[in-house]
Structures are given as C-alpha cells and as structure tokens.
UniProtKB/TrEMBL annotation, chain A:
Protein name: Sarcosine oxidase subunit beta
Pfam (any one): DAO
Lineage: Bacteria, Pseudomonadati, Pseudomonadota, Alphaproteobacteria, Rhodospirillales
Naturally occurring in which organism (per UniProt): Aliidongia dinghuensis
Any GO molecular function: oxidoreductase activity
UniProt GO cellular component terms: cytoplasm
Protein keywords: Oxidoreductase
Domain FAD dependent oxidoreductase: from-to ranges: 7-351
Superkingdom as given in the UniProt entry: Bacteria
UniProtKB/TrEMBL annotation, chain B:
Organism: Aliidongia dinghuensis
Entry's Gene Ontology molecular function annotations: oxidoreductase activity
UniProt keyword annotation of Oxidoreductase present: yes
Keywords, comma-separated and alphabetical: Oxidoreductase
Name of the protein in question: (2Fe-2S)-binding protein
Top-rank lineage group of the source organism: Bacteria
FAD/NAD(P)-binding domain residues: 5-324
Gene3D superfamilies xrefs: BFD-like [2Fe-2S]-binding domain (1.10.10.1100), FAD/NAD(P)-binding domain (3.50.50.60)
SoxA A3 domain span: 398-466
Record flagged with keyword Membrane: no
InterPro entries (alphabetical): BFD-like_2Fe2S-bd_dom_sf, FAD/NAD-bd_sf, FAD/NAD-binding_dom, Metab_Enz_Cyan_OpOx_G3PDH, Opine_Oxase_asu/HCN_bsu, SoxA_A3
Length: 376, 475
C-alpha cells in the first residue's frame, strides 16, 4: 500500500486550512490538505464574507487589524482580489437607547489606542447609507472594513495553494489516526498519509477530530442562516448591522442583497446537513425591511445555513496542543472567522516553524476549553 | 397557525382528484394553488372558457375540465387560489400541536403564514423541458406551453405566422388549436429523430389499451396535413438570431440540409418533466427515470414517497397525462383517508380497485409515447456559446471548462460557476448541467444526482417573510 508522506497534513479544506497550507508551502514545507467533501464545502462556502474589524472582541483586535492590512493587499497575497471591497462596515443605533452602547465602545477602543472605529451622527449616516430608514440616530463605522466574495476567495486560495505546491485531496475524510514514531498516520478508506505535523482545521467537526487525535476540547455548533435576494440596482455599498437585532445587510457584486446576522437554523453533524428555520428567519426579514423600507418587494432567491464550530467565549481556538506533540488546532471562529483568514495562516506557520509567534494569541489557547487536569 | 388533516398543493387534475376523494371520507382538506382558478395547466381558466366558442375550439378534452372543477368547488375542501407555497418541512412534535406531520409556509396577497398538516399531497405537475440553443433567450422565442396558456386564458393568437419547433403531443395539439383559433403556422420543425417509430414499435402492443389516445395524436397529424402546414422533419439543430428580438431562425436536419428563414415568433417544446423541487426540498428520495429522461420521486402504488405522509400525485411523480393524474390524485387522497383512520383497509381496497384498473389503462401508451418522443440528443449537448443558466448567464462552454477540475458534481459546480444559483433554482438549467457534466466526465447522468434545493420554493418577498414574523408572534 502506498503511503503519502509530507511535512504537514492539514485536515479540513476550508479557508483557514487553505491559508495555513499556503503559508507553510511558501515557507518550503511539503503540505497536504485532506478534505472530506470538497474545498469550501461548509462554513467557508456559506459565509456572508464580511471583512470586519468593527466590534471585535478586544482579544481579537490586534490580529484582526493585521488581517485587514492583508486584505487591502490580498491580490498580492493570493493572486486575485477575492471580490473584496472596502466600502466600510456600519453598526447602526436605531433608537436613542442604543446610542450609549456605541459611545462606550468607541471610548473604550480609543482608550486602548485604537482609532479604526468612529462614531458618526445621523447626518453622516444618511450620507453613507441613503437607503437606510430615517429613524436611525447614528452609528459606529469602520471605514476600511468591507466584504468579499466567498466563492472567489475560496477559488483564489485554492489556486494559490496549488501554485505553491500544496497537494489538495478532496473526497478524503480522515477515519483513523495513529502514532508511528514521530509521525502521525492518517487513514481514509484505502489511503494512508503520514506527517510529523497535523493541523486540525476541521471546522464544525474539529472537536470530533481533536478527540481522535487525543485532545478533548469543548465545542458547540452554529448554523447561521442567510438570505440572498434577486439582483437589483445598487442600494448600498457598506455592510450594515444594527444594535439589538440579528441583522447583517449588504449588497454583493452581483447586485443581490445578502442578509444574515447570526439567526440560527439547525444542524446535524452526522448527516453533514443543516436546515433553515423560517419562523426564526422571518425576524431577520423583519429587521431588513424595518431598516431598509425600499426592499420590501424584493424577492428572495434562496436561503441557507452553514455549519460552524462555536466556542463558549466565542473566541477561536488557535494554538499547539498541550498534550500531543506535532498537533495544532485552528477552528471555532464562532461565526466571524472569514476576515481573520489571511493572518491566521501566518500564525500557524509561525507556530509550526518557529515554535511560537510574536502575535498575541494567548486568549485563543486550546487549554481554556479543555478539562482541568485532576489534582495530583 | 392553522392545522388541517391534509394539505394538497396544486389544483390541477391530481390535486382536485385528491381533494375530492379525501373530502368524501370527511377529512379536513386545504388546497393551495398559485393559479387564480382550478384546473392546472391542462384545464387552465376552464370555468370561464369551457362554455364559450374558445372552449369549443380548444376541444372536448379541455371542456371536460369544467365538470371536474365544479365537483372540486363543491367538495368542501378549503381552496386558496393565488397562494404560493414556498416551504414545507417535516414538523416537530411540540406541545399543543399535531404530532409530527408537516409545516407548510404560504403567502397570499402579500402576507405569509404557516399551516400544519398531518399529510401532504404534492400535485405540482410538470414543467416543459428547457431547450437551450443559441438565441433561446431572445424575445420572440417562447415555449409551446406558454403560448397555449395565452391561448386558453386570453384567446391570444399571434398576429404573424409562427414557427413551431419540437417533438411530442403538445406541439401537435397546440397547432390544431391555433389553426382553429384563426392563427397561421409558418412551419413545423419536427425534431423527432429518424428511427424513433421503429424504436417505439415494440411498445405498441402494450399501448393498444390506450388506443383512443393514439388515435387522437394521429388525428392531429392528419389535421395539420390537411391544413397544409409545412413540415421539416428530423431537425437536429436550431439557432435563433436577431437584434434585440427574434428576426431569423436557422435549422439543420439529420441529412445535413440547412435553412435560414425570417421569423418573429418561435415556439419550442421537447416534452415535459416532473416538477420535483418541493419533493426534493422535503428530502424525498428521487430516482432517475431512463424511460422519461428525468428524475422522479420514488413512490409506491398510492403515490407515497420515501418520507411517510408525503404523497406525490400526477405528473410530478412521473409523466402520465391528465387522466392518469386525476386517478393518481384520487388514490393518494383515499390512502391518506385510510392512514388517518377515516377509511378501513377493506373499504380502501374496494374503492381503489377500479381506479387502479383505469390508471393502468391510462398509462398503457406511455412506454410507446416515451420511446417515440424521447428528446433528441442535441437537447442535452448545446454548443459552447449557448447560454444554459439563464439566471446567471452561464454558457455551456463555462460548464465544460470547469467539469474536469476535481471532477465536480452539480453542487460543487454551482459554487464554482454560479449556474443554478439564480431565482429559478436550477429549474431551467438543472438537466442540461447534469448532462454536460456527465458527458465531460464520461459517467452516466444518473450517477450525478441533482442540485440540492435551497428554500424558498417560490420567490417570496422580504416583506412577505417579514409579515410571517408578525403572524407567528400573534398565534
């Protein structure tokens, strides 16, 4: 039986797996990406592809700002613009009662030395988003934020990986794992792969994979729902969210409206399937037509959910396994991982090649979600 | 949220038959249909048209629909025309609700609501098989079915002579109806390949039980001959061209002869395929029907699919025609009544027996007709520059170019190219894409499966979905 050997085996062909593979291959490593179905099948292909620093958890802000700098030169990194437009992200205060939330957030960010989030009044908000209902009172804005095209992004990362020498094996779910000396031996059907280093980038299934690899990590699930409408003439350029409601609203390059915001459908890990819950999704539609009255007659073309891992503190898991040498985890982005893709690949590369990173990632350590060791 | 015993989707022959049968045994039945009046496509507008001169011109088979509509109107089912069913899903067991069953989401007059039902009969009928060829998206090119609807509902007869291109009973029927209505036909490009009659002949003995149907087809052909309609046989390729709308039509036949003619209206038709999106969305298993070149839900003799409590009746379960559809609707309606305890097994068997016998008679000519009118191979292999996905304007060449990268299936290809992502949800491009992929990858089309169907089934508006939030909160 042939066994395919490499330096690093990345399990999971989503965007984070591809980004890690890309950075490692460019650093001269032989990298294999093992993907159970096809590249970008789940969360990466189902995302609204928001490129957002706005409103991030303070622990994520430094890497998110670096990622944003990378997005602004994404074509130089992956050879394609990924459909990224920096038309801003805007968090709207609909009523006066929402205003203090935004003011406090801005003050806190300034106190920490960050200036990328900016308060704008009703007049400036109207200038930025003329289609917005006039009852809104103001907003918090990150002007360099924006959104990309998820399918173009997946295609670009895939092509860049392959150009850098990454081997992508689709239709290849890892079924068994064992140690062979310093190597991991990964099996799927009749195929075998060995690598001294394994990256667990298995998204919603990463908790199960971690358990196979010897780490117990507490992990929940998300199945965020999305609505895409028919195409229409330009309505707005920035991505708009709103305080107190589950709404994210943007218009794609194709002219379709893409409406999300984290309303949850249901998901089934065993069947690799998720389902839209329309009674809940109706709240998203309600929010969309309340904020943008002009879209009431726009027809919905399709709705979907994607399956993704969610952590207790909604921060990702990025780091080396404390138990298993040669095992690295990258998953659990809890619905906001798309923007972090370029930088997290670089972080994995640091961790694997240098044994550490200058970037602040202590808050993402896998240990925080692992059971405490019994006292000796 | 309201609750009923049985939800029937569609008020054509199958839906009306199902509702009447179920009502006879006292079930609480809701029938929703997106048309403004009962009859489906076959008996469209029959209540107002049957007794008029237009009705007489459309023929006795059409006029017969009036009685069915009358019986349906008086059967006691709640009938909601102008309703769009945009999602139906298996229900969860919730306190105070009917156990299990289904939850359907509808919109009507701009308002959305949901309904619970113990059983669902999908009687959503068929759609014309899309026929991609260069220029098929030009104004002036439409389908025979669409033209026939205009004839039935509005007595609309094209002013200029029309070209008809295609194969099957519908073009023949439409042409005789059009002539009777005073229309003129520039010519009929018959796309039935040579040798089809020979291929169909082995099925003829079985078809004789449905002799009347075959005689009717022969009668249409003779009527066209008498009227002097020019017929060009064994047409393989079509191309429509024009600035902004159809101006010329080019064709090529099997023996290589070609022609280009001025044309203002071209009506095409290459048979019909079941509408399976609702069944797919519910998760019902479908199977490839090599005899009809389409997918159809797997159903038992009663029409029950792989998901218990979901029935598919009529052409949506495989093409059988209007009379068969009505019988299949009745059988499904009776079986639901029996499942819900309104009818004993013995009574069910007794009532079903004559229906099953009639159904067998109605379906007898199908293998003959399916073999005779099987779509020509060119329908599935359009030239590279032909648009195959109209919503996203994707050409056959784009699909062929991507077919070999990682050997994708239809759902991967959707992400790669956006084909099938538009508002029609693959109803127009589905089969063409499957065939292009299969040919490029050298595997049987039946192996590829179909698109995963994303909700909603109908393009409900944001405002309608938003209204559901209010109605749900109030109930």
């Amino acid at each position: 039986m042939t066994v395919l050997g490499c330096d690093v085996a990345v399990i999971g062909g989503g965007l984070h797996g591809l980004s890690a593979a890309l950075h490692l291959a460019r650093a001269g490593r032989r990298v294999l990406v093992l993907e159970r179905s096809w590249v970008g099948r789940h969360a990466s292909g189902a995302t609204a592809a928001g490129v957002r620093t706005l409103g991030r958890d303070v622990a994520e802000v430094p890497i998110s700002l670096e990622a944003m700098e990378m997005w602004h030169r994404i074509e130089a990194i992956v050879g394609d613009g990924c459909g990224f437009h920096a038309d801003g992200q805007i968090r709207v205060a609909e009523f006066d009662s929402h205003w203090p939330d935004l003011l406090q957030r801005e003050a806190r960010m300034r106190a920490l030395g960050y200036t990328h989030e900016e308060i704008v009044d009703a007049e400036e908000l109207r200038r930025l988003v003329p289609a917005l209902s006039p009852h809104c009172v103001g907003a918090l804005v990150a002007r360099r934020d924006g959104a990309a095209d998820p399918h173009r992004t997946i295609a670009a990362f895939r092509r860049a990986c392959e150009a850098a020498g990454v081997t992508i094996v689709e239709g290849c779910g890892v079924e068994a794992v064992e140690r062979r000396g310093a190597d991991w031996l990964l099996s799927t059907g009749a195929r075998r792969f060995t690598a001294p280093v394994v990256v667990n980038a298995a998204g919603a299934w990463a908790g199960r994979l971690a358990a196979m690899l010897g780490d117990e990590i507490e992990l929940g699930l998300k199945a965020s729902m999305m609505i895409v409408t028919e195409r229409l003439a330009p309505v707005l350029a920035p991505v708009v969210s709103v305080v107190g409601r589950a709404l994210s609203f943007k218009q794609s390059d194709q002219g379709t409206l893409v409406i999300g915001g984290g309303l949850q459908g249901s998901a089934d890990l065993d069947r690799q399937a998720s389902r839209v819950d329309f009674a809940t999704l109706a709240r998203g539609a309600r929010a969309a037509v309340d904020l943008f009255p002009v879209v009431g007659d726009v027809r919905i073309a399709r709705c979907w959910t994607g399956i993704e891992a969610k952590t207790r503190d909604l921060l990702p898991v990025i780091g080396a396994s404390p138990n298993q040498p040669g095992l690295f985890h990258v998953f659990g982005f809890s619905g906001h991982g798309f923007q972090l893709v370029p930088v997290v690949g670089a972080i994995l590369c640091d961790l694997i090649l240098e044994g550490g990173t200058q970037r602040p990632i202590a808050a993402f350590a896998p240990e925080r979600l692992m059971p405490a060791r019994a006292a000796a | 949220m309201s609750a009923v015993d049985l939800l029937v989707v569609g008020a054509g022959p199958a839906g009306m038959g199902a509702a009447i049968a179920a009502r006879r045994h006292g079930l609480d039945v809701l029938v929703v249909d997106d048309q403004p009046a009962p009859g489906g496509q076959i008996w469209r507008a029959v209540e107002t048209v049957a007794a008029t001169s237009r009705g007489r011109r459309l023929g006795t088979a059409y006029q017969a629909g009036a009685k069915r509509a009358e019986a349906f109107r008086s059967c006691g089912a709640t009938y909601e025309p102008g309703s769009q069913l945009w999602q139906v899903e298996p229900g969860q067991v919730e306190p105070g609700q009917i156990e299990g069953g289904f939850r359907a989401f509808l919109s009507r007059e701009g308002r959305a609501r949901s309904v619970r039902a113990k059983a669902v009969i999908l009687a959503t009928g068929a759609q014309e098989r899309p026929v991609p060829f260069p220029g098929w998206t030009l104004p002036g090119v439409l389908t025979v079915g669409a033209a026939q609807i205009l004839l039935k509902t509005a007595d609309e007869v094209p002013e200029k002579p029309v070209w008809i291109a295609g194969s099957g009973p519908l073009p023949l029927l439409y042409m005789t109806q059009l002539l009777a209505a005073g229309g003129t036909i520039a010519g009929f490009l018959d796309t039935t390949p040579s040798g089809r009659l020979k291929a169909a002949l082995p099925h003829l003995p079985g078809a004789l039980a449905g002799l009347g149907k075959l005689a009717k087809g022969l009668g249409w052909t003779l009527a066209l001959k008498r009227a002097g309609v020019p017929v060009i046989r064994h047409v393989t390729e079509l191309a429509a061209a024009g600035e902004g709308r159809l101006q010329t039509l080019s064709y090529r036949t099997e023996d290589g002869s070609e022609g280009t003619v001025p044309a203002e209206v071209l009506l095409v038709h290459e048979g019909v395929v079941p509408s399976i999106h609702a069944a797919l969305a519910l998760g019902c298993a479908v199977e490839w029907r090599a005899d009809q070149q389409c997918y159809a839900p797997k159903v038992d003799a009663w029409g029950e699919g792989s998901l218990a409590g979901v029935f598919v009746a009529g052409d949506g379960a495989g093409i059988g025609g209007a009379e068969a559809a009505e019988l299949r609707g009745q059988l499904a309606g009776l079986k639901v009544a029996a499942k819900l305890g309104a009818l004993s097994e013995a009574a069910l068997a007794a009532e079903a027996q004559p229906l099953s016998r009639s159904l067998a008679r109605e379906l007898a000519p199908r293998p003959f007709l399916d073999a005779l009118f099987a779509p020509r191979p060119q329908v599935f292999a359009p030239a590279d520059e032909t648009i195959v996905c109209r919503c996203e304007e994707i050409m056959a060449g784009d699909i062929r170019a991507r077919a070999m990268v990682g050997r994708p299936g239809p759902n991967q290809l959707k992400a790669f190219t956006r084909a099938g992502m538009g508002p029609c949800q693959g109803r127009q491009c589905g089969y063409t894409i499957m065939h292009l992929l299969a040919a490029a990858q050298g595997r049987p089309v039946a192996e590829l499966g179909f698109y995963r169907v994303r909700p909603p089934l109908k393009p409900v508006t944001l405002g309608e979905l938003a209204s559901l939030d209010e109605t749900e909160a109030a109930s």
